[in-house]
């Protein structure tokens, strides 16, 4: 009965809830770009005010980078103590010309799959974060209090490597201890299939610059005898891959990678993943990863080395007959199993250095971090309770899935706070997160809020 | 006697001559960048006014792009009729942060090799162009008239592919006819060695974009199954080259390429080219071109395929876990012998298209031109006269050299006006043309002016 009242309150409050999300989406909190530091502050302050408006003791906590938001409600004794995590920072928006509107002037748009909220951060992660906050708001409105003790923990550096996260968790470990972490930053395996992520890939970031001649050269005077860093970097990037097998060709790259057990493969096969939709929605006719592995394995259970940025020379209007002095490359690896980020970084750097031509130098960016893969403790009873709650809301059996993405905080919750995490998210693969025209389905937002209400109810029964 | 008077006049007028060049250098006439169109106009107007100040009937001639400057002096009958060509447009200046000063705020600087004029265009080609104009100014000051009939022809689109050149030459062929074209846009084979260029490499420009997914993708959600255009373009660029031989691996690339005759190789060996200076001055310890060919052959007599620009994905601060939708590449080839630009373009495009992965597309820029290599008619008596004049000025035997660069206008003078060209230039390899900190030695400027006075004297004797 009491749950139904909360669900009804959520339904009747949907429009104001979307308006609140829009307010948050209008703040351009791009954490990776120092020019937007003030906006990150503003987003944190908006969240503090919003939490306070539903009776949560919330504060902005200063860090050397973007601030954290921490809020507490409830006392020892009233049921389990959960810590909810989300991040209020967003990805950069370039290339701007590919957006159908100002990324920070969000709007409701009608699409063939129903209404969507269009704007940077609508799905990753402001919209998802607010599903939990709105569930708490509705619960408070109906019951005058929260269902259990809850700590809110919002980060503003997730999209820029979370430099302040480890020190902050370490310094505030006592305050942040709880029974279970809840995270809403993941997607559904396919439209309408409620999903709990049971494993995440880790991440390694690196960046290098190849330096050839001391200065840019004229391609007439030096074309021929001249070493061209763009040719050099192309050869080296190409050498990262074995085009026959689709594998990464860096020596020792696959150390610590395990094959997926048969029973898990069977379970994934039945989890409702729509391979055609996943591939075709972005213009692919087939998977392009390691031969001999399914699309789902390539995405969830196999490591990658991706080039995220490559640049050098002239890219303006017209042409310039130049041999540039430098060429640059940004890479990220997705890690699985027991792959060690630090060991992998050494292997990749050796691969590049071993292949440099005479007269070429490489310079590495040493400020980029790495984090291992993580596996959830799905044997805990809360996972079964959440699975039932999600199945009830979506009228579809909820499934345990892998995730291709990385959420480093999950590993730190375990290592620093001794906290297991449960990852429930409502994003869809076509949300275009990190891309132009990011959106979040109104259905994801609405049923996401209802799902959290059901999960809180189940956890506190 | 009369020549000495002109040379003395040049010496005493050097400082004002440098001031005049500085005025021209302050005009940022970057023709490849539409934003600088007005500056190109301004540079043309400055030249018209300067030519008029020494009694030359000069006009700015409008084209669809940057204007031409045409000036006439003298009548039929007074000796040979020469056409002097130079270009007033300059290369872009990026990367700006590598300049030691504002590229368009030129100044005299002291260096270990003597005084230099620092600034964009000081060497390529405003400084060289003005050596001839100043020689004419001095001749007029001493004699009250020019030594012979001279047509001045200055272009403003040389650094952006000369789109208006062929139509202009065709429409004005009658007006621009002469006995011989003089061009000052080349360099000396090494410091202090006067050089006449006897062959130039041709040029082919092309640009392509590799398109993978329909939109930028999240490297977590799509890393593995996703086709990455940056990986694709790196593999394709790497495939342009055979790293064993240093040759270009595009099928049929070397059709029309001829080996350099023994006697010419012998002459080049004695032409005073300083290989160590050429390589070490830009940070090379060795030549990086085709194995089995000397540095000079690689630069003057062998074709190249150079990547001038390569870009895609995120290149801002921090990192972005993106698989970009597109990757871009700008290339230029240097052509020798009888290589056909149009045929070569088809071979290169086929090479790329044959190597595309499924789900990858390529889009070509079809606005980029090509021009074949050219060989000068050094059997004409004017070449011997000029060689003697240059040897007298520099107290060093003048030499016939090849050139790695391309000056398409030379081919058009021949094909459209039936005009042979003589290329005499005073640039040095360390002038950093097309690079940050471009400079022109004051010695090049001063002795360049004197050299033209001697050549005009010799041609009119």
From TrEMBL, chains A, B:
<dbReference type="InterPro" id="IPR011650">
    <property type="entry name" value="Peptidase_M20_dimer"/>
</dbReference>
<keyword id="KW-0645">Protease</keyword>
<dbReference type="InterPro" id="IPR051458">
    <property type="entry name" value="Cyt/Met_Dipeptidase"/>
</dbReference>
<dbReference type="Pfam" id="PF01546">
    <property type="entry name" value="Peptidase_M20"/>
</dbReference>
<dbReference type="Pfam" id="PF07687">
    <property type="entry name" value="M20_dimer"/>
</dbReference>
<protein>
    <submittedName>
        <fullName>M20/M25/M40 family metallo-hydrolase</fullName>
    </submittedName>
</protein>
<feature type="domain" description="Peptidase M20 dimerisation">
    <location>
        <begin position="209"/>
        <end position="358"/>
    </location>
</feature>
<keyword id="KW-0378">Hydrolase</keyword>
<keyword id="KW-0479">Metal-binding</keyword>
<dbReference type="InterPro" id="IPR002933">
    <property type="entry name" value="Peptidase_M20"/>
</dbReference>
């Amino acid at each position: 009965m009491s749950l139904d009242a909360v669900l009804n309150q959520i339904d009747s409050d949907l429009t104001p809830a979307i308006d609140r999300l829009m307010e948050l989406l209008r703040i351009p909190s791009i954490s990776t770009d120092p020019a937007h530091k003030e906006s990150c502050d503003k987003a944190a302050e908006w969240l503090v005010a919003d939490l306070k408006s539903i009776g949560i003791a919330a504060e902005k906590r200063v860090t050397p980078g973007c601030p954290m938001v921490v809020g507490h409600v409830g006392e020892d004794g009233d049921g389990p103590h959960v810590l909810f995590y989300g991040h209020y920072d967003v990805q950069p928006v370039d290339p701007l010309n590919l957006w159908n509107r100002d990324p920070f002037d969000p709007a409701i748009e009608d699409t063939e799959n129903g209404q969507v909220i269009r704007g940077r951060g609508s799905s990753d992660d402001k919209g998802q974060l607010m599903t939990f906050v709105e569930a708490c708001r509705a619960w408070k409105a109906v019951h005058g209090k929260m269902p259990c003790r809850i700590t809110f923990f919002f980060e503003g550096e997730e999209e820029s490597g979370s430099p302040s996260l480890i020190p902050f968790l370490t310094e505030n470990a006592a305050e942040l201890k709880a029974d279970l972490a809840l995270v809403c930053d993941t997607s559904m395996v396919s439209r309408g299939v409620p999903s709990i992520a049971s494993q995440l890939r880790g991440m390694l970031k690196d960046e290098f610059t190849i330096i050839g001649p001391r200065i840019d050269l004229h391609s007439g005077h030096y074309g021929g005898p001249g070493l061209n860093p763009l040719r050099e970097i192309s050869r080296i990037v190409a050498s990262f891959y074995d085009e026959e097998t689709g594998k990464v060709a860096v020596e020792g790259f696959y150390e610590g990678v395990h094959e997926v057990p048969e029973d898990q493969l069977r379970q994934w096969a039945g989890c409702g993943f729509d391979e055609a939709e996943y591939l075709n929605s972005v213009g692919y006719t087939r998977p392009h990863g390691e031969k001999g592995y399914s699309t789902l394995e390539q995405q969830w259970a196999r490591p990658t080395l991706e080039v995220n940025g490559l640049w050098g020379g002239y890219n303006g209007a017209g042409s310039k007959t130049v041999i540039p002095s430098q060429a640059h490359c940004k890479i990220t690896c997705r890690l699985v199993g027991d792959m060690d980020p630090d060991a992998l970084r050494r292997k990749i750097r050796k691969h590049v250095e071993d292949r440099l031509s005479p007269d070429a130098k490489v310079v590495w960016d040493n400020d980029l971090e790495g984090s291992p893969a993580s596996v959830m403790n799905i044997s805990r009873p809360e996972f079964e309770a959440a699975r039932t709650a999600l199945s009830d809301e979506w009228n579809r059996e909820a499934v345990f899935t892998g995730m291709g993405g990385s959420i480093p905080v999950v590993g730190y919750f375990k290592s620093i706070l001794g906290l297991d995490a449960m990852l429930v998210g409502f994003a869809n693969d076509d949300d275009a997160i990190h891309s132009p025209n990011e959106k979040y389905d109104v259905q994801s937002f609405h049923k996401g809020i209802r799902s959290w209400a059901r999960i809180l109810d189940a956890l506190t029964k």
